[in-house]
Design goal:
This protein is α/β, with parallel strands linked by helices and 310 residues long. It has 13 helices and eight strands.
Length: 310
């Protein structure tokens, strides 16, 4: 009798757990629904090899070119504020990296700044861009300087917004990271509170990461394959000492930092980049965090505009 009772209780527990998992399960949105949410139409897609990039181009066709590269877990909309201002005088090109937004996963399942830089080269060739200034945040900044070191003839100027390349919390040179257990559930279970708790600490003032930003990231992360690609990219990420490559870059470089950035720590990291980059200077913003172009675009874009106009 006791055995039957225990089996009945186990069956009940499994039934409840199964129902809870089914209730929490958050599937990807369909490709059509994701594109309806974030693209303007077929003109926003450029196929390069086996990749179909989501690309947004704005501004005068014959103007100097700016390429904006977002950070990890983000999408091209990260640059909305800066693009609206700078596209008055520049041809602004921004795109979703492989594994992000509407570009979706790399069919080869391969990720890393060097591969991203190679894909950027192919994308610029497809768009007929021979020379551009690159603007990148976090991972996007690492991709920008990686590209500049490999293809100096293709780069006019660099704007590096809290760029990656030196050790991060928990990631030293030569190390890889296994995503935490909670992150491994993200391809299956996602809600807006998780998005808020994950990203709002990257702002200097977390309250500025409001409902519109939460909704944008939540819907973007539900684009087909993006959440699993995010885990694959984290597992592939590995930092090697960038100093020698940075020293080879001659392009004028503006380093942009929020002084409350703890991820790419303002207290220690800008000095490393300034010491390595021979033609660089720093502008910083009190009260802002890791994504100043999102947190306060109206204030931060002025320094970028002045630098580009020099």
């Amino acid at each position: 009798m006791l055995g039957r009772i225990l089996l009945g209780l186990l069956a009940l527990v499994l039934l409840v757990l199964g129902g809870l998992v089914a209730w929490l399960y958050t599937p990807d949105r369909s490709r059509g629904a994701a594109e309806a949410r974030f693209s303007r139409g077929p003109q926003d897609f450029v196929t390069v090899g086996d990749m179909r990039f989501h690309v947004r181009q704005e501004g005068p066709a014959g103007a100097p070119v700016l390429v904006m590269i977002h950070g990890n877990a983000s999408q091209l909309q990260s640059w909305d504020g800066w693009a609206a201002d700078l596209s008055r005088d520049y041809r602004v090109i921004r795109y979703d990296l492989a594994g992000h937004g509407l570009t979706g996963p790399d069919p080869a399942g391969s990720y890393g700044p060097e591969r991203d830089a190679a894909q950027l080269l192919a994308l610029l060739d497809a768009l007929g861009v021979q020379r551009a200034s690159l603007i990148g945040n976090s991972l996007g900044g690492q991709i920008a300087w990686t590209f500049a070191a490999a293809h100096p003839d293709r780069v006019e100027k660099l704007v590096l917004v809290a760029p990656g390349g030196y050790p991060l919390p928990g990631i030293g040179f030569g190390q890889t990271v296994e995503p935490p257990a909670a992150a491994k559930l993200r391809p299956y279970i996602l809600n807006k509170q998780t998005v808020r708790l994950t990203l709002s600490p990257l702002y200097g003032d977390p309250s500025r990461f409001g409902p519109e930003a939460v909704d944008r990231y939540y819907e973007s992360w539900r684009s087909p394959g993006v959440r699993q690609a995010g885990l694959d990219r984290v597992r592939a990420y590995r930092i090697e000492d960038p100093t020698d490559r940075l020293r080879s870059i001659q392009a004028p470089t503006l380093l942009v930092w929020g002084e409350k950035d703890w991820l790419v720590a303002f207290a220690t990291t800008p000095a490393k980049f300034q010491a390595a980059l021979p033609n660089s200077r720093l502008v910083s913003f009190p009260g802002l965090g890791h994504m100043p172009q999102e947190e306060d675009p109206a204030t931060t874009v002025h320094a970028v505009r002045a630098f580009l106009a020099e």
